[in-house]
Amino acid sequence: MMAASLDLHSLEQYCETLYNPSNQASRLQVESLLNYHFPTFSLATAASTSTSSSSAAAQAQAQSDVAAVDLKGHSPSINTPIESALFCRSLLENTQNPYALMQWETGVVKILGYSLGEAFATSRLKNLVEDHFTTFTTPEQLGLRTFVLRYIYQNPDAQPFIITAQAQLFAIITKLGWLENEEFRALLDQIQVFFQPGHPIAYRIIGTRILTAVATEMNLPSSRHATKCRKIAVSFRDAQLLPVFQFALTTLKSLLQASDVESAKLRDSVLQLMKMCLGFDFIGTLPDESSDDVGSIQAMTTWRIVFEEPEYLEVLWECWKKFSGTTSILAMESLSQAASIRRSLFSSDETRNIYIHYIMRETVLTIKSQEGQAKLQEVGNFHEFCRMLSKFRSTFQLSEICEYKEFEQWISLVGEFSSRGIHSWKWSPNSIPYLLTFWSKMVSSISSAKQATQDYIQGITVDLSRAYLKSRLECAQAALDGEVDDPLESEEELVTTLEMYATLSRSKYVDSGRFVLAEFKDIFKKYRELIQRASLGSPSLNGSSIKEQLTVVEMQLTWMVYMISALIGGRISYQSTGEQDQMDGELSSEVLGFIQQAQMWTTQRPLYLASPDAHLYVQSAILFFYTQFRSSYIGEESSKSAKVYTLLTERWGLTGPNQVLDVIMNSSLGNLRSSGDPEWRKQEDQLVVRTLRLYTQLASGYSSVKHIRKLDTTKALLKNHNPSDFRFLDPSKKSSDTSVARSRMNYYTMLSRVLFAEDNVDADFWRFVRPWELTLDQVTLAFEGTSELTEEQIRLILLGIFKDLRGFVSSITNRKQYTLFFDWFYPAYTPIVVRAIEIWPHDELGIAILRFWHEFVSNKSSRVTFDSSSPNGILLFRETSNILYTYGQNLLNRPLSSPSARWTEKYKGIMLYFNVLSASLSGKYVNFGVFKLYGDKALDQVLNVFFSLMLAIPVEDIIAFPKLANAYFSVIDVFASDHMTGLPMMPHPVLAYIFQALGDIIPPQNPDTICSTMACSAMDKICAFVLNWILKDKVRKEEGLEALQAAGGSPDLSGRSLLTTAGSGNNSQRSSVELSRGALSSNGRPVSKRRQQQQQKQQETHWLVEYLMANKDILSYLFLALFQAVAFENRSNYWSLSRPLLGLILLNRDFYNEYVSGFIQSQLPDRQEHIQTAVTALMEGIECNLTTLNRDRFTQNVTNFRRECTQMTLMASNGLPSDDNGML
């Protein structure tokens, strides 16, 4: 079916030009031509084509090799997706040109390099199938699937990447047609053609890859049709997955005696297939592909016939033993899966024990035999074997494992293997965590075993603990020599491993602890000797060697401190014995001795012996020790750990938690100071971050913050909280690291918590803010012209102070604390804020001020509460209005240096404007009616600027910048609650913008659903207001009609209800909305002029009602956006998406009826009746109101409707006339 307008030769030339273009313009022109002749009828492709065409047109003047044609739409010879699919099929059947078979991509594809690009026609077929599969008839679907399978069969020598692409296409077609047609489910029967006797092995390899592709595709989730995809996966799991796995197992068994190259390839393919089958998400719980090492394999009970027969494990172990290389590693990966089969799958304890004991027996043989040891010398095999052991122990219970008759031999051999593996950690460092996982799992459930077994396992763990400690000491030297990556660089990953080490070592803690203690003392002794030599300038060691030795020992001590800290942090209070607490006390005493020595040496050592990295690691280890000691021995349970404090008292005089906290604060406070050396800046910044993290933890604990509040160190810090050597408090020192940049704010957040830890802190508060007062008074004088401060000095001072104030206010949690701060700051220093905004609106100072002000006006925990007679709430908003108006006006007048700078130069400030406005409007500490009552323009001016800023941002930019979108929809949600309907009028462009943004945010599927949720909330509030107003108006009209009839009058028969008015056009078309008015007096008696005015005002149509009734296309647009999301997409916030739907339907019932009619007609004929029933049920029992009962009934109907929609693949309908190009 090759189109007459495009012959095969020309098409092949176009494809070649696409991948080997002479220039960008020719490639884009060819891309446009291929889009024209191979249309996908997809909006995404159309948009891409439009962009590409316009780009090509700009460059086409210099091109002569390809005609400069800007093609729109598609070839007139192709009018439907199936015709385009047949054209692709024709291309596949008639061309052998590799370029014509290559994937259509915008990037460069290296054919000879096998970059695995898909075939061009296959890629286009894939797009057509994924987007339009439901429009194909069943014969067309089956025909396309048969063609793909036949093409693969007839082209076994095609490039591997083309076979892979075709297999994936076959898998997609099979998946999409799986539920609707039984022939799609006869998978194995259709694939048997590749496994016929006499065929070359290449056919069997291809057949295996097809099965792997299908199993992979069936396991892939879908964000749009998650429920249906899961139903397909379950059906495939129940019908075909087990037969496919059994087929693979049988095939693998038949290949155990083959040794040729082709058979090896087939073995690898079969093992990949088996791995994919067991890696299937059986119960829909795997969060992502990286969760491979989490949990057990939840195979169905039907799989018992595989796992309760010895053949499965026999074949896998035989395959692992007999073959090497990739096959061996894949076999061990399958054995790792075999060790993860859920325990409850087995029909009895006996069959499960047989399975467990077989694995244990083969493990013993592997470790004991020379052949097994030789196999484990391969890194891949060793790693997978360790992983298998970890999974085996994580899946099965220790009591079941202990029933093995040769358990002691097994656990002894595994212990020896683990010890050798840990000692050889350089060879396969990523395997060590698996070994630690195995033994930590062993230890964690050791109480269920017999005492003799416990003693045996504990004896092994002591040796393993020693081996791991030795390996870490070796790691310190190896990392310094550059042989391995230093694990100390990533503390988070390090801590995870140390937690397992702690579990292992605390099994027999006294013995393990003694060894740790002895090692620590030996290294610490060496450390002191090296320090003494360095201090004396010993002639026996030159400067270079003494530094190297000192660095090595410091790193070893760092590892020791980390490991001791993990041991202390691994304490479980209800399980810990006095003997274990005593060991913690001995280890803690030694660490405190090291800390004291390290602090002394830090102040005395020559600069040439100092290393910034070593300093960071040592101090980080000390901070980790403090953190772990606090979690175990400082808190409510501290009274139960007297043994620790007994030893600490004897050696250091630390009688309880208060004294330890004093040591922590005193020793770590120096980390906040800076040496001033630029080479140390990065490390010192990181140390500040980690120290403040510890302080924040201490200040967050109820007991610890009470203790800290009473310390002399803390009291001194509260009195002098901005010393000059705290470099991170210098606003002129900037950092691109976010955590470092937030250090100043975190510091004052912590100090604020400590300050307010006691109730009566008025005097302490005024002393605390005194340094700020002195600084701000200087700034005030500078603004008045009576200070010598330069403009840059003022800017830096204010930049620092507003960061400080933001951190300080952020931790204020109650009314009393907030009132203290408010009385100090207002009105004395608020003029500085406005003045600074006026002078430095373009600077980061403006950002810092708005961030502080957002924190200042946020009413979290109801802290902003003033007395009923206090005007402070109103005054606070007036100041907010002045600040926002000043800053907003500057934003409106500020030109952009370039479009790429719009976030930093404009949108970031607008985002903060929205945040401050949202916090102020939702704070509930201001009666906004006061401003209108007394003619105050504070609210009006801030809203006018808000509207102007809104219109200054394209809607697409609102959605493109997540932080801006979050701020915008937050303020719109708040604005729609009460403030919007209370305004006398709103500009129509602003209304149009708001409604467009509310609709546009719905389609994008973003994991963060907060924006669409807030948009739906705003929609719901607006619809509720409009509908309730119309219903009330209807009641008033009916009462007026009854009054007229009672008085003998005649009603105005020309009136029509707003609910049935088909409004159109703009708001000026008042004639499109006709309202019948009731009598001025419902009882026919005269009423006063004031009452007449009141009645007249009530009868006036609210401007928002009038606007929406005159612009119902807005309601239609919002309905479409929501309906498409609810019916066709899997959203985590679908409940929120469904709430505004009822109001939109009731306000625009005619459009709803028209849309659902078109929606039903757009479906395949055999599904229309079913869809008709589902759509009818959507409004069943729904009344024309928005009561809670009616809403809940509608939400339940929507849930049922979604369930019906997910049972089949449906075609979406835009519901709009063909000439309607948008919302407005």
TL;DR?
With about 1200 residues, the protein is mainly alpha-helical.
Features:
54 helices; disordered C terminus; disordered N terminus
What is the SS-derived class?
Answer: mainly alpha
Taking all Cα atoms into account, the compactness measure Rg is 37 Å
What is the 3D form? Answer: globular
The parts where pLDDT drops under 50 for at least 5 residues are 1-5, 43-72, 97-119, 1050-1057, 1060-1080, 1215-1224
- Helix percent band: 55-70%
Beta-strand residue fraction: under 5%
Put simply, the count of helices is 54
Distance between the termini: 43 Å
Give the overall pLDDT as a whole number: 85
β-strand number: 0
Could you describe the largest sheet, including whether it forms a barrel?
Answer: none
Helices, strands, pairings?
Layout: H1 8-19, H2 24-37, H3 43-59, H4 81-94, H5 120-132, H6 138-154, H7 160-176, H8 187-191, H9 201-219, H10 226-254, H11 261-278, H12 304-307, H13 311-322, H14 325-338, H15 349-368, H16 370-375, H17 379-395, H18 398-402, H19 407-423, H20 432-444, H21 451-480, H22 491-505, H23 509-536, H24 543-569, H25 578-604, H26 612-633, H27 642-652, H28 657-668, H29 681-700, H30 702-709, H31 712-719, H32 738-741, H33 743-755, H34 762-768, H35 770-783, H36 791-810, H37 815-825, H38 830-839, H39 844-857, H40 872-893, H41 902-921, H42 929-933, H43 938-951, H44 955-960, H45 962-982, H46 988-1000, H47 1010-1046, H48 1089-1099, H49 1103-1110, H50 1112-1128, H51 1134-1147, H52 1149-1161, H53 1165-1178, H54 1188-1205
